[in-house]
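worker-3 :: picked IclR family transcriptional regulator
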Amino acid sequence: MSLTLDVLARAPGGLRLADIATQTQLGKTTVHRLLSGLVELGWVDQAEDDGSYVLGFRPLTLALAAVDRYSLSRLSASALQHIADVTGDTVYLSLRSSADAVCVARYEGDFPVKTLTLSVGERRPLGVGAGSLALLAFQDDAVVAQLLGRNADARARYQISDATLHALVADARSQGYAMNDGMLVSGMSAVGVPIRASDGRPVAAVSVAAISSRLGGTRRLEVANLLSNAVKDIHSRLQASVDFSTLGAG
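worker-3 :: tokens ->
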């Protein structure tokens, strides 16, 4: 297993099963069995388009190493800290990892009531929480259906039905941002916006969490606009330094 992970760690653009078998000198059947288990655990992601495999974001040390390699945390830090300073609330950066979202950075504002509902390194099934929902909602319909099937067991503990998620996906697409209105913690809400790859795929998301009374009506739209503007800034910086094709596979 470690040999397979080592091979993938040296190939950020991903490898096909046959290439992994060649480099590890293991049989294809053995490699396929190992990869299936690693994908299930979130250690490895499989791309929908060509079936290639890339290193995932679990455990946290792998997540942070991958994020540093892609420079996402560094390039987004100033924009996200600015949002935390302006709103006074908590800002999160999440990255897609297979059928989950991984929190890779958190910035705290100065409002006295904190909404620290997500820790750096924590994983949630796609669709659970505003950033995670933003990563799910703006995928193609076929991908959404596939992802909901893959993380159904993981979502069960949150008691969020497929019907509810489909409604939230529709709302997010209509509004242009994802909204978690007390879905996870009563009295706590959040707004999320995706960061897209050059082909339109959501590969990361930024979100703002606050007590629900601070994310109603006009202020919700103001926060969503702040996030959208930050995403444009982050996207411009990433385009100059990141090969988007290697992000968010699986």
